[in-house]
Amino acid sequence: MVDAVFSECRVCNRQWPCREDFLRDEEVVLIGYQANFVALEKGLFLFNHSCHGTLSVEVHKFADLYQGDIFEQRKTGSESCAGYCLHRNVLKPCPAQCECAYVREILQLLRKI
C-alpha cells in the first residue's frame, strides 16, 4: 500500500507528506488561483517550487482554514465583481459579497503563512 502525500512536485519529485510541511516550506511560493466556477472546491491554488516546477493544489485541501461566512450567490460578471477570479495571478481579496469570496480569503490566509 502506498502512503498518501499532500503534494508532489512533478519536476523534481519532492514530496510533502502533509499540508503543514508544504506550507512551511520556504521553497514553495503561492503565485495564483485558477477558478472553477462550476465547483469552487475544485479550483486550483498555484505554487512555484524552487526547482522551477509549478504545483497545483485543489481548494478543498485548504477549505478548513476559512471559518467565515460563505455567500450563496456568485457575482462574477456583475457590477460588484472586480473580476479577480478571472485572472489567475491576481491574489487580492474580493470586495463583493460573492460565493467566490471565501476562496479569495483562503488566498489571504495562505499568503500570511
Q: What would you say this structure looks like, in words?
A:
The chain contains two helices and five strands, in the order ββαβββα. The protein has helices spanning 19-24, 101-112, and strands at residues 7-8, 15-16, 28-34, 44-49, 54-58. With 113 residues, it is an alpha+beta fold. The strands form two sheets. A three-stranded antiparallel β-sheet has the order 3-4-5. A hairpin with a 4-residue loop joins strand 4 and strand 5 (54-58). It starts with 6 loop residues before the first strand and ends with a helix.
Helix content: 10-25%
Whole-angstrom Rg? 15 Å
Structural class: alpha+beta
- Global morphology: elongated
Count of the separate structural domains: 1
Tell me, rounded to a whole number, the average pLDDT: 93
Number of helices: 2
Outline the biggest β-sheet.
Answer: 3 strands, antiparallel
* Order of helix and strand elements from N to C terminus: EEHEEEH
Count of DSSP E strands? 5
Distance between the termini: 32 Å
Query: For the largest beta sheet, what order do the strands appear in spatially?
Result: 3-4-5
Strand content: 15-25%
Unreliable segments (pLDDT under 50, ≥5 consecutive)?
none
